[in-house]
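Our platform keeps sequence and structure together, in a single record for each protein. Such a record has a labelled line for the sequence and another for the backbone structure tokens. Nothing more is needed to write down the fold, since each code stands for a local backbone conformation. For reference, a complete record is included directly beneath this paragraph:
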Amino acid sequence: MYRMNSFRSALILGAFLLALTAAFAGAQIKPIGTQGAYPDIQLDKAGNLHLVYGRLGKTYYRRLSASTGVLAAEEVTGCAASSDHQKQPDVAIDSKGVVHVLGGAVYNTRSASGWGKAFAPGINRDHHMTVDSNDNVWVVYRGLQLTAKMKAAKASAFGTAMNIFTGGGTDHVYPDITAGNDGSVHVVFRMRFPSNYDCAYVRYDPKTRKWAPVEWACNNGYAKVEEGPHIAIDRSGIPWVAIPEGGLRLNHRTGGKWNTVSTVGAAHTRDEPTIGVDSYGNKFIGKWGGTIYVYNAASSKWTTAKLPSTNGDPIGFVDVVGDASGAWMVYEQSKTVNKSIGARSAELVVVRVMPDGSIVPPSGPQAKPPLTATLSSLSAKTGGTVEFSLQAGEKRKYGGYLLMGSISGTSPGVLLNNNALVPLNLDSFTLSVYQWSGQRAFERFTWWFDQWGNSIAFLRANPGQLTPIVGYKMYFAFVTLPQLDYASNAVSVQVLP
């Protein structure tokens, strides 16, 4: 009881300090020191961020290190850069870490030995690129109607064009492409048929090596669909599509059918609502002008936010990619951004967006998962200390938390307050951790975040204390207090003899 009373006192103190520090909110978010247009981002399997953008007829590349948070110097890719978004830069990363870049219909790669020799694979406008799980490179673009080319993993050139859809109208076919973990390739595009526009979907089956029949992804008749639907695949292989249709429609494909999950906000011509999915199934959508939408998979609720303009200038195009516990976004800010076709350049800003909608800088502590641990195992014989690092973002500064434990796994987890999915299964260990929270064995397991939304906690095991659970993994995750509206990722600590 004393612990909770002191905790409430801390919250009161936090409210006072919050007023003092309000002027500093968001001050750490700043441009990356690069001028460019039509940015595109991807993550590699190590969590490094890869960024491409166009400027004055050339496509450039920069890499943000996951381990250091340092953004490397700008590199010239050898690819062209068109003056409009119809041939905007694209980047994709294969399993070996090779960077694939497409800009102005010119293609090149970057390996450990540097950049290769750029060449034009003979594609048209409105192109997008992806790499499948077998390291084949796919490009989809507007041909006579909808066309794709594939470069096999060990090939030096792209194959012949595939007309993957030849029905309907040819006007303004804006495709997007992504790949699943099973070698499949997924394309979503706007199609005119017969006189109106609708959102269509087509899938490449790696087993049959054929494109499946086209499906209607809107599932609502031939409604007015604006330009630029975008697609992402979650870890279960389910495609999710952000469709600009007056409102922003979020659809997914399950059981061979397309269904509307929810509709939020507004989306208009050339808003280009790009979408990313994190490992927990949360959906992150960013569109022209800087409005972002986060769909919480646990609560089925939307959070709407606005990307910060660091200089007060308007925000242009936004690109999104999901990671383990949130999403990365890159966006333009400039007085010259507009929806019309034409040459322009802007400051580029990179941020991370958390599942609760908070926006944090890309470097430093927030580039890591919300919960990390200094050790992945402990000896029951000798004991030891594990230090946990908790990072909830500035939005939750001075708020409280409870660090929970389990020895029975992380799935299916527990839904708290119909809002936060805690990736822990409750058991007797959970109760023990809670009862001893705040004592030396579980120091600061009940505590509060500092002015940056960070904290640390300690698990201290005496020699022989963990003997009853030798062979088990201890799993830990934190939830926010008192609202119970946010849960972190889980980390594990193996108990060894």
